[in-house]
Amino acid sequence: xxxxxESGGGLVQAGGxxxxxxxxxxxIVSLNxxxxxxxxxxxxxxxxxxxxxxxxxxxxDSVKGRFTISRNNAKNTMYLQMNxxxxxxxxxxxxxxxxxxxxxxxxxxxSS
Length: 112
Description:
This protein has 112 residues and is mainly β. It contains no helices and eleven strands. It has strands at residues 4-7, 10-13, 18-24, 34-39, 46-51, 57-59, 67-72, 77-82, 91-97, 101-102, 106-111. Strands 2, 4, 5, 6, 9, 10 and 11 form a seven-stranded mixed β-sheet that branches. A four-stranded antiparallel β-sheet has the order 1-3-8-7, with no helix packed on it. Strand 4 and strand 5 (46-51) form a beta hairpin. The chain is globular, with a radius of gyration of 13 Å. The model has no long low-confidence stretch (mean pLDDT 95).
């Protein structure tokens, strides 16, 4: 059983940056795909970015060029560096591992 805990959310002005972290209770080496999802108020949860165990990444079009997903297997942690934030990025961000494990989420609010 893997437990995931997100941190790093907060309130930031448009154009600002935040770095989210997703810390796993155990080793993430064996976890294949890890992902960040977000859920805006009143909307469905949507995939933001994924990273495989080999380091291949994919992003939803709306964040390409602004967000960077990464993972540090030695620290059992995944990250999401978010730059040039926009008000439409406001959401609860959750991490997922191998489509099976979820964190509780961290709130990101971007003011205009």
